[in-house]
Structures are given as C-alpha cells and as structure tokens.
Design brief:
The chain is an alpha/beta fold and 537 residues long. It is built from 14 helices and 20 strands. 1-deoxynojirimycin binds next to loops.
C-alpha cells in the first residue's frame, strides 16, 4: 500500500457560518474559527475542510462564488485566512479549501462580462444557447427546482445552471476557463493550504444538449488535466464530491497512481432512505441489511485500488443520530455506536461539526428555515398539492438546515455561538447538548471521537486491515473484522434499541476490548441497546 499522510488522518468539516461568530453579527467567521482552534487540537484532527468562505452574495451560502481569490467580508479578509492557516499549523492541522468549480456566482466578474455581449471574451466562459423567450432549449430541471435555463433578453440567449439561477455553470470545454481555474488553485497552494474538496465535481463536464449532467464523456480527461497542472505539484489531500460515483468510477477518482484525487465522497449509503427513482424528500424506511451490503461493498471493491472517504454527515445532510441512531433516550449510546462503526473502517474519516457532540436534527417552523433548497421545495410541493404536514415531515427528516444550526458550545445564550442574533435559530436542546459539558467528560461522545482519532494513529490495522463482514444476515448487528499481517480488529454494533444476543463470543475470545460505548460489560454474550464494541488481538 502506498503511504500517504492522509491515510491515517481524520478531517473535520467546518461550516463557517454556523461555527463561531467573533463579532456579534450572528454569522460565524474566520476569527471565530481561530478562537476555537484549541478545541480542534484537543479532538486531535489533522485537517479542516472549510466550506466556502470566498467572496459571495450567499445565494447558496457561499457555494456561489463571486471571487475565488478573495474572502467574503462577513467571514473576514485574506489576512484572516492567512492567520487561520498559520494558527492551524501550530496544531499540525491543515486547511482544506472547498473548490466550487462547476459554477460561479452570477456576480462573478466573468459572468458580468459574459452577459454583456456574445462577442465578449468572457461569453464562452459559460454555457449559452440561442432561443426564444419562453421556449427553453429543453426541459431539464435544476437541483433546486425550476428549469436549468435562464433567459437573458439582451442577448436573446439562455444560460445553463444546474443549481440556482445565481449559479451559472462554467464551460469546462473552454481551455481558457480551465487555465484560469488552475492558476487560481496554484495561488491557493502557494498560500499553504493543505488540500481541496471539489464540489459536485462529477457535474463539470456537462453536455446539456444530450441532457448529460453527471459523468460527462470528458470528465476524467478534465480532472486528470487539473490534477497534473495543480494538485500533483504538492502533497495535498483532495476529495471530489461525486453523487454519481460507482465503484468503478471511484477507482479512477482515487487511483493510487495519484492521477486524479486522493479520494471521493460517494453517497450510496446516504440515499438509502429515499424511495427509488424519487427525490430525497420522498422518505423510505431505513433498510438495515442494505446499509450493511452497501458499506461492505465500498470497503471490498476498492481495496488496494482506490481509497474511501468515511462520513455520515455534512452540511447538506441531516444529523446521523437523528436518522440511523435514536436522538432521544439512546442519543449518547447511538451516536457513539455510529462513530465506532464508521471509524473502524478503511478510509479517511470526516467528522462534521457537532457530530462529535451528538448534535441532532431540529424541527422548526417553515419561517425558521434559511436553505434555498428547502424553501424552493416547500414552495414547489405546496403548489403541487402536498399537505403542509407531508412537506414538513420531509424537511424535518432531510432538510439541509438540520446540519446548519449553530454549533453548540455551552449552555449560555445562543449556545455561545454569537452575542448577536444568530442567522438561523439555535437548536433549543443546546442546554443539554454542548461542547463544554463534554470535553472533560471521559464518557462523552466527544471523548469517544477523540479516542477513535487516536486509535487510527496507534494501530496500523485501522489503515491497512482487510475488511470482512461478519453476521451478514443478522437483522440487528453490524459486525466486521479488519485484518492485516500482524493484527485483527473486530467491531460489533447493535443498531437497535433492544438487547440482543451477541453471537461472536468465540471470535473475540482472546481479544482485548479497545473501546465500547457502555461503562462496563457485565455479560459479554449480550449487546444492550445500541451497544458497540471494538476488539483487537
Ligand atoms: C454541493 C454542496 O455541498 C451544496 O451545499 C451546494 O448547494 C451544491 N453543491 C452546489 O454548489
């Protein structure tokens, strides 16, 4: 196995708006992150993936970039960014920037030029089609609802946008666009960033005339060129976001020869709670055996020919303890169980802010939501005749704002996130769930995560052990082993709230308990609600 620093690393994702406000405007900022670096050092993480802080009108909370080489004033300035990189370095933490390269903001200088005239040198930086008002080139629908085509009367043309109207798609077929992007990436590398996360990277090589958005024919050609021109000149961690990734594609993305990225985010395990062929809002019961199957196949299929990223949460997803766990009476046990299950696997784990505290979904009224996707869906489905109850159920379960409520630092007003009015309501459970009460408690969810981060560094089997699923057909227990030449690790997790028999007593007979989520084990042969254990020989 090729050695790379990011193979025993753990990444922590920060959604800057919601992490820590330092100036009382109700929005988290870079100085706030600097203030909290000690906390991240304590957790032991190796890198921070920073959701976008570039200059942006914030139509999609920063995923609409108006200047890739400047910082949005609400987050700070370039000096703050440099200070953050330097402060993180003191803790051996690298900063991973979020690159949104499929589209820019419509307020980016390129787009402002592009829409001036058809012969403007920037026109071809975006994707245009001639047409007639009211008759878009085709019926493609955007991710946030509505048509992907927006009419510009002055030009008598439509531009293409896979996300909001304020996020026009960049034209990757134009070599000038690609060069601009590479130069910008090199500029950030020069500033000392440790890596990049590439937003919806599988959508950059779109071919709208053929209705192709994901996995366009030129996708890997463009990624390989970008990697050659930029990433390969440094020792970076790079991770592509690819909702359309299959095992075969993941082998390309994370080819050990380094020709594309270090790894990809694939979402097969995330999509299991939605009805097939429908939207994410159309909920389906959680299929446990399918979850085992899916996670197992990702472990085995790309073993030695690719690299996994391991995650349950991010800023687009609901809180995992509220989905696969139990965020009521077994919140602590189930949050730890889900952590132990994931962190025992092969790949690079990502912890999303607040996950290490067992933060939960928030069930707000529609007025309290801020996310463009949620609000557009509410509007669209109301018009389509869904009941308010149906829509709110979907939002409470899957809305992106579930993961975007402010970080819960302590039990003071606004959970210590801001002295002002937070841009989105704080989850009212912050008095019970907060960092202050957990950091020094050896039995907290935080301490469990800290331990998992350490174990990955201590035992090579976490990094290179071969995965084998145990108890394949068991309807309650998710168990597996990891084996390398020297050691074996066994992870056993009860996924439900009933006590069940633990059929692996022989398997673990001579093994040592590394970590569990209950204080003591009185009966090895039983697993209590959401009980998880990790053994090593
Ligand atoms: C994926 C990001 O994670 C999400 O937050 C964003 O809305 C879309 N890409 C568009 O950039």
């Amino acid at each position: 196995m090729i050695k790379k620093w990011w193979k025993d690393a753990v990444v922590y994702q920060i959604y800057p708006r919601s992490f820590q406000d330092s100036n009382g405007d109700g929005i988290g900022d870079l100085k706030g992150i600097i203030q909290r670096m000690g906390y991240l050092g304590e957790l032991g993480i190796d890198a921070i993936w920073l959701s976008p802080v570039y200059k942006s009108p914030q139509d999609d909370n920063g995923y609409d970039i108006a200047d890739y080489q400047d910082i949005e004033p609400m987050f700070g300035c370039l000096d703050d960014m440099e200070a953050l990189i330097a402060e993180a370095k003191k803790y051996n933490i690298r900063i991973i920037m979020d690159l949104v390269l499929n589209h820019s903001s419509d307020e980016h200088r390129w787009f402002l030029e592009a829409k001036k005239s058809k012969d403007n040198p920037y026109h071809d930086y975006y994707v245009w089609r001639d047409g007639k008002e009211g008759v878009p080139p085709n019926d493609m629908k955007g991710v946030f609802g509505g048509s992907t085509w927006e009419w510009v009367p002055e030009l008598k043309q439509y531009y293409f946008h896979q996300f909001s109207v304020k996020q026009p798609d960049l034209n990757w077929d134009n070599p000038k666009v690609r060069r601009e992007i590479y130069d910008m990436i090199l500029w950030w590398m020069d500033k000392g960033v440790g890596g990049f996360r590439l937003d919806v990277i599988d959508q950059i090589a779109k071919e709208p005339d053929k209705k192709i958005t994901q996995n366009g024919p030129n996708l890997h050609k463009y990624i390989q060129e970008m990697s050659r021109e930029t990433f390969q000149k440094g020792d970076l961690i790079t991770v592509g976001e690819a909702w359309g990734a299959t095992h075969e594609l993941a082998k390309l993305y994370s080819n050990p020869d380094g020709s594309e990225f270090s790894m990809v985010f694939q979402f097969e395990h995330i999509g299991l709670d939605q009805q097939e062929g429908k939207e994410k809002w159309d909920l389906a019961p959680l299929p446990f055996l399918k979850l085992k199957q899916v996670l197992t196949r990702w472990q085995t299929e790309i073993y030695n020919c690719g690299w996994n990223s391991l995650f349950w949460n991010n800023h687009d997803l609901p809180r995992i303890v509220s989905r696969w766990g139990n965020d009521k009476e077994y919140r602590v046990e189930s949050a730890k169980m889900l952590a132990i299950l994931l962190h025992g696997m092969q790949g690079t784990p990502y912890i999303y802010q607040g996950e290490e505290l067992g933060m939960t979904n928030a069930a707000y009224e529609i007025e309290d939501y801020r996310d463009i996707e949620t609000l557009n869906m509410y509007q669209e489905r109301s018009e389509q005749g869904y009941t308010k109850e149906e829509i709110m159920n979907s939002i409470h379960a899957k809305g992106r704002d579930n993961g975007r409520t402010p970080m819960q630092w302590d039990d003071t007003e606004n959970a210590g996130f801001t002295t002002g009015t937070p841009w989105i309501k704080v989850n009212p459970n912050y008095k019970e769930i907060n960092a202050k009460s957990q950091v020094n408690d050896p039995d907290s969810i935080f301490s469990c995560y800290r331990k998992l981060v350490q174990l990955r560094k201590e035992y090579p089997v976490f990094v290179d052990g071969k995965f084998r699923l145990l108890l394949e057909d068991d309807e309650n227990i998710f168990a597996y082993e990891r084996q390398n030449a020297e050691q074996k690790l066994v992870v056993i997790c009860n996924f439900y709230g009933e006590t069940v028999e633990m059929p692996l007593s022989e398997e673990i007979e001579d093994m040592k308990l590394l970590l569990g989520n209950y204080k003591e084990i009185k009966d090895v042969t039983m697993l209590r609600p959401y009980e998880a254990r990790m053994y090593i020989n």
